[in-house]
């Protein structure tokens, strides 16, 4: 690099880069044309590769005579994503590939066993042990490896279609292999279903025979139990005892009805005889043939008497004879009526006897029916067992007939079908001459331009110096740098020169840019304006540093400057908190209203809650976690937990400042594991020896972001103006 770029800050001249590229445009175009020509020649030399694809749709399939409901039930598992992925793995299985290789006799083609022919480059690599000898693998494995490299099986996104793609130098072979794979896959799937049906039939045969024996034994137990306990069935649902009880109940009702009817008829006849009323209206009397004949004779005699009374006197013998016959007829009618009454009364007695007999039989059958009900409990258990065995047998028989009907290969189609067969391609899949030439030309053009730009940058022609107002600060920083170099002379392993971040140079601090290749230049403070408390506050605000660790080698004076820094940040509206990790507790004395306030040591000892240790500054809006009142040694045993505390605080506050007092690098490393933190060296009065030693220690420990802060003790002791009232 040029001397200008080494001794002072430089910037990149973009215009010079563009002019350099434009000045060499003919050379770039020539190189681009040459690259395109090489790509065209290479594309023409490379053997063309042809690619064909077969697509298979995964769907449930069954014979036309199969039950529709069965098909719908079996379609569920075939439609999920995992099943489709499983079918993709089956198509890539070694067994299927071996079967395709054997069917098409691919092991005889040189394309699938290029290692057998060998090449000079392969022999050299094998001799140098840079490549394994391919001939050490069996021929079958070499063919499978070559086949797998050219095969691609994938699921079409958003569908149940599987694509089978194969690439080969022969277009016919590229089309025949995917089709052969699809056919073998369908045959394997169909064979799997056929084997499943055959296995089901083989398993069901002995199970059906066993169930038939169990069903026969269960039905025999039911029949024997019925015979033993007299639980004979009449119509399939009612026992013989229950049927008898039902019949007797019906007959008893009928007999009681007949008895009541006979009693009513007899009472009607008695009433007619006792009152002397005519009995012609009674059905039992009028239905008697004898009564009808006597009534007819009585009517005839009555007619004769009425006719003779008109011509004969009452004492005439003819009239007397007729009246005597009429009285005799009426006596006979009364006698016949008495007989009818006796007959009806006999019917009543017979019905009463019959009813009593039926009642006795009913009582007997009721007792038998109660015993039969108790016996029916055991019968029901046997019948349930027999029915269960019978239903299981019927289910097995249905499954057996269904499996047996699908024992033929044509009756068990695979759950997939070919929706698109591979065809012989005319245009090669690779190489694509036009895209290759275009990409090569564009890449050559870009690379040529980049090479020219880099050459301009490394030569220094595209760099321009940047004017900077360094002033006395740069002079003093140079003196410190020279002293560091002098102290490093004579050491066997010189320590890298530390890099001091100046708060006024925020771009270098935040972007962390590298210095030029020349030796790094250390910059030291010149006055309070450069490394004052306000400058450090502005730096922390601009770089948005969440955590800053302040080291005060001079003791309380440096801690006072850190307090001033926290108050300045709070006055700018930043949410800031200061954690007092000093041994003297001087920051807590300056900020806390209560000297006995709970703080860090109480939190680490577990004697205070997190919220109880946060207090407000008595002179600003900043917050404070004081030193605390617990034993410091006991608290330091849990110092490893302090990193969790700092992580929680950085998520709640804009800036967290940890004042460590006169701590060393080891003490800072225990606070946080991250090296990307801000290290503030609070030196009210700059001691070059102490400053250089601290910078070297932090540089060796990996802390690159070190900020120097001087002054600030007076600012910490006085209240801000807006709090004066």
What does this structure look like?
- With 725 residues, this protein is α/β, with parallel strands linked by helices.
- Helices cover 60% and strands 9% of the residues.
- It has 27 helices and 13 strands.
- Strands 9-10-8-11-7-12-13 form a seven-stranded mixed β-sheet, with helices on both faces.
- The radius of gyration is 61 Å and the shape is elongated.
- Mean pLDDT is 77; it is low at 1-8, 68-77, 467-528 and 718-725.
Our measurement of the CA-to-CA distance between the termini, rounded to an integer number of angstroms, reads 61 Å
Oligomer: single chain
Helix content: 55-70%
Strand fraction:
5-15%
Structural class: alpha/beta
pLDDT below 50 for ≥5 consecutive residues: which ranges? 1-8, 68-77, 467-528, 718-725
Placed side by side, the strands forming the largest sheet appear as 9-10-8-11-7-12-13
Radius of gyration, Cα only, in angstroms?
61 Å
Shape: elongated
**Total number of helices:** 27
Main sheet record: 7 strands, mixed
Annotation, overall tally of beta strands:
13
Mean pLDDT over the residues: 77
Condensed summary:
This protein has 725 residues and is of the alpha/beta class. Helix content is 60%, strand content 9%.
């Amino acid at each position: 690099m040029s001397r200008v770029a080494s001794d002072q800050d430089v910037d990149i001249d973009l215009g010079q880069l563009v002019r350099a590229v434009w000045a060499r445009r003919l050379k770039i175009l020539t190189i681009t044309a040459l690259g395109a020509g090489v790509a065209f020649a290479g594309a023409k030399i490379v053997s063309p590769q042809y690619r064909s694809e077969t697509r298979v749709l995964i769907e449930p399939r069954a014979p036309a005579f199969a039950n529709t409901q069965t098909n719908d039930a079996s379609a569920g598992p075939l439609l999920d994503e995992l099943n489709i992925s499983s079918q993709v793995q089956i198509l890539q299985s070694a067994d299927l590939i071996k079967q395709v290789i054997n069917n098409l006799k691919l092991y005889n083609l040189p394309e699938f066993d290029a290692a057998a022919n060998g090449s000079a480059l392969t022999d050299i690599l094998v001799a140098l042990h840079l490549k394994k000898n391919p001939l050490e693998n069996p021929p079958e494995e070499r063919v499978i490896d070559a086949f797998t490299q050219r095969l691609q099986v994938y699921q079409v996104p958003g569908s149940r279609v599987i694509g089978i793609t194969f690439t080969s130098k022969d277009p016919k072979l590229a089309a025949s292999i995917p089709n052969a794979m699809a056919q073998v896959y369908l045959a394997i799937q169909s064979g799997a279903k056929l084997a499943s049906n055959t296995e089901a039939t083989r398993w069901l045969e002995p199970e059906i025979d066993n169930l038939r024996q169990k069903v026969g034994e269960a039905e025999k137990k039911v029949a024997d139990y019925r015979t033993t306990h007299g639980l004979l069935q009449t119509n399939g649902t009612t026992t013989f005892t229950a049927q008898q009880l039902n019949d007797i109940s019906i007959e008893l009702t009928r007999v009681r009805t007949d008895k009541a009817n006979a009693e009513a008829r007899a009472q009607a006849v008695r009433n007619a005889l006792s009152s002397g009323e005519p009995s012609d209206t009674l059905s039992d009397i009028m239905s008697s043939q004898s009564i009808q004949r006597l009534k007819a004779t009585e009517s005839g005699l009555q007619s004769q008497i009425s006719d003779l009374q008109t011509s004969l006197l009452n004492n005439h013998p003819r009239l007397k004879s007729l009246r005597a016959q009429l009285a005799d007829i009426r006596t006979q009618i009364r006698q016949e009526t008495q007989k009818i009454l006796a007959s009806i009364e006999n019917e009543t007695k017979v019905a009463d006897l019959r009813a009593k007999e039926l009642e006795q039989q009913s009582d007997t059958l009721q007792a038998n029916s109660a015993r039969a009900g108790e016996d029916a409990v055991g019968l029901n258990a046997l019948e349930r067992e027999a029915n269960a065995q019978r239903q299981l047998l019927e289910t097995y028989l249905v499954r057996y007939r269904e499996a047996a009907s699908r024992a033929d290969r044509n009756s068990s189609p695979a759950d997939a079908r070919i929706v698109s067969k591979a065809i012989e391609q005319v245009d090669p899949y690779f190489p694509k001459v036009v895209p290759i030439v275009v990409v090569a030309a564009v890449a050559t053009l870009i690379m040529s331009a980049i090479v020219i730009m880099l050459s301009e940058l490394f030569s220094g022609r595209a760099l321009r110096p940047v004017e900077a107002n360094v002033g006395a600060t740069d002079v003093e920083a140079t003196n410190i740098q020279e002293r560091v170099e002098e102290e490093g002379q004579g050491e066997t392993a010189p320590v890298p020169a530390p890099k001091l971040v100046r708060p006024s140079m925020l771009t270098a601090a935040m972007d962390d840019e590298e210095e030029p290749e020349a030796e790094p230049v250390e910059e030291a403070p010149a006055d309070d304006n450069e490394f004052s408390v306000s400058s450090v506050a502005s730096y922390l605000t601009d770089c948005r540093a969440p955590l800053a660790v302040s080291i005060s080698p001079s003791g309380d004076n440096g801690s006072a400057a850190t307090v001033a820094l926290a108050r300045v940040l709070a006055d700018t509206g930043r949410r800031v908190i200061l954690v007092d990790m000093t041994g003297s507790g001087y920051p807590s004395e300056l900020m806390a209203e209560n000297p006995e306030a709970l703080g860090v040591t109480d939190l680490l000892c577990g004697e205070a809650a997190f919220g109880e240790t946060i207090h407000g500054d008595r002179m600003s809006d900043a917050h404070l976690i004081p030193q605390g009142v617990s034993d410091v040694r006991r608290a330091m045993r849990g110092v490893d937990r302090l990193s969790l505390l700092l992580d929680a605080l950085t998520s709640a506050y804009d800036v967290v400042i940890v004042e460590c007092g006169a701590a060393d690098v080891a003490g800072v490393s225990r606070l946080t594991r991250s090296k990307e933190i801000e290290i503030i060296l609070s030196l009210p009065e700059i001691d070059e020896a102490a400053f250089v030693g601290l910078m070297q220690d932090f540089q060796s420990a990996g802390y690159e972001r070190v900020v120097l802060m001087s002054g600030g003790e007076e600012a910490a002791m006085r209240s801000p103006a807006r709090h004066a009232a």
